[in-house]
Write a structure and sequence with these properties.
With 241 residues, the protein is an alpha/beta fold. It has a single domain, classed as Spore Coat Polysaccharide Biosynthesis Protein SpsA, Chain A, CATH 3.90.550.10. It is built from seven helices and 13 strands. Strands 1, 4, 5, 6, 8, 9, 10, 11 and 12 form a nine-stranded mixed beta sheet that branches. The chain has a two-stranded antiparallel sheet with strand order 2-3.
């Protein structure tokens, strides 16, 4: 199975930190954010990884990560010439993916527990109980029943569930045709991961894996980035290398 890291976006929630730098290169304790995402995939057995880049300093990624071998990965890169949204980014990977299921993960994610992809059928998402861990308005809240996700509401001000979808998914190759259909229906508007999830949920096909509470952080805000730095610093102090 291959993996795609969606590392585009403008990082507006982190401005002015992202004025001179791509947000995925911002540090979390002792290394850039993107290295944690690569390590999360590698730890789950995904070593063939495609990293999407945009106009915000793509060369710095190549200088730092090179071919990915230092992290146990085989890295490939794709460049977004314009802002395409997550759905458009996935389309850039269609030929590279081929006809197999694949993992898609957002590049501003920090997972504090190992991810396992073995034996999981697509479509599949990784969920977590929120329980005061963070601001629910940042996330897509989900309802679950009998091993399936039955409802998703993106970034709602109202809290209607204890569970959220995190930023890691397993998609079947049919997702590429779905994205093209959605883009055509919406006159080429950006297609989000939530749009894709909604389709599979409506069909009753979206499975999930429940992660331990507090094991995922969306590092796309200043408060979350600070929290992530504190957690990783505490871990380093407790388990020195």
């Amino acid at each position: 199975m291959k993996g795609i890291i969606i590392a585009g976006g403008k990082g507006t929630r982190l401005y002015p930190l992202t004025n001179p730098l791509n947000k995925h290169l911002l540090p979390i304790y002792d290394r850039p954010m993107i290295m944690y995402v690569i390590s999360a995939l590698v730890g789950g057995g995904i070593t063939d990884i495609l990293l999407s880049l945009n106009e915000k300093h793509p060369g710095l990624f190549l200088e730092m990560l090179k071919d990915g071998s230092d992290l146990g990965a085989h890295l490939m890169y794709v460049y977004e010439r314009e802002t395409m949204g997550p759905g458009g980014t996935l389309l850039l990977a269609e030929r590279w993916i081929g006809k197999e299921d694949f993992v898609a993960i957002l590049g501003d994610s920090l997972y504090l527990t190992p991810l396992s992809f073995t034996g999981k059928k697509a479509p599949h998402l990784f969920a977590m109980a929120l329980n005061g861990h963070d601001d629910h308005e940042k996330y897509g809240q989900i309802k679950i029943k009998d091993g399936r996700v039955t409802k998703l509401v993106d970034k709602s001000m109202e809290r209607f569930s204890e569970f959220i979808q995190t930023a890691c998914f397993i998609f079947p190759p049919e997702v590429f045709g779905l994205i093209r259909r959605l883009m055509k229906e919406r006159n080429n508007q950006e297609i989000t991961i939530g749009d894709i999830s909604h389709y599979f949920i409506k069909e009753g096909r979206m499975r999930y894996t429940m992660l331990p509470e507090g094991s995922y952080i969306d590092c796309g805000t200043k408060d979350a980035l600070l929290k992530a730095n504190k957690i990783m610093a505490e871990r380093a102090a407790a388990f020195p290398r």
